């Protein structure tokens, strides 16, 4: 039986909980959600989730403890739950950016198995890209956590030293693509579409681009070559974007996010 306690039920904690229930990994009643402001969880309580503002009590029954507070809030939470964690029956999964498995064990004890996971908010609809890493968990526990995240998206297992890069590319990355879609829709309005039509067209076009790569396993540039007719309008627009730093801006943003993600714990 999967009993999961999510400590820190904000944006990503709740997205994970919703995704797991929507994809029938477990029932709402198998998930305990915590935060300090309990009234903010009244909607989830009405949907059958257990809710609590007492982390120590909330982890009592859990097989899986998910840490999903901000990096700057984590030390206090770890100090609070340390005496109550049972290394024999519980595994700790941390989605907290910039905090290593060793950092977590420093507070919870060296015998606790810790797995880091880096999902994105599309986990709520079962479409996350989640990276998983651990430096001490057994293969069996890593498999178990991988299967959990596979019910709500794709999973790649990585070395822990690439976790801040995964944070930038996948967790922050969804915001970068969302902004790109928003920018496309704003361009669409300038060339004549009403806002809601422009957004719908931009969203479906972005989905088509992603699905094309996923389903054909082709390279983006190969697909771009099929769109850019000689002397045509696509290459004119694409080159104008590149003259204005499109790829360069994207790459620089990802590099800055990765640097920032690495420093959040002691921020
Ligand atoms: N947002 C995202 O897309 C992603 C975020 N992450 C990581 O997940 C973590 C959470 O991020 P995010 O969801 O955006 O942040 P949020 O601020 O939305 O969520 C954090 C939650 O933690 C709760 N909280 C704070 N202190 C405690 C405490 N002592 N006990 C219990 N709950 C507490 C807060 O509620 P209250 O104030 O009521 O206690 C809040 O709801 C971060 O470490 C982030 O790096 C990872 C991948 C993606
Ligand atoms: O912005 C942040 O710090 C968090 C981590 C990854 C996504 N959101």
TrEMBL record:
Subcellular location: Cytoplasm
One GO CC annotation: cytoplasm
Coiled-coil regions, chain positions: none
This protein's pathway: Amino-acid biosynthesis; L-proline biosynthesis; L-proline from L-glutamate 5-semialdehyde: step 1/1
Record field: catalytic activity: L-proline + NAD(+) = (S)-1-pyrroline-5-carboxylate + NADH + 2 H(+); L-proline + NADP(+) = (S)-1-pyrroline-5-carboxylate + NADPH + 2 H(+)
Binding site for NADP(+): 68-71
Pfam annotation, one family: F420_oxidored
Domain Pyrroline-5-carboxylate reductase catalytic N-terminal: 3-97
MF term (GO), any: pyrroline-5-carboxylate reductase activity
NCBIfam families associated with the record: proC
HAMAP family xrefs: P5C_reductase
Function: Catalyzes the reduction of 1-pyrroline-5-carboxylate (PCA) to L-proline.
Name of the protein this chain belongs to: Pyrroline-5-carboxylate reductase
Source organism phylogeny: Bacteria, Pseudomonadati, Bacteroidota, Sphingobacteriia, Sphingobacteriales
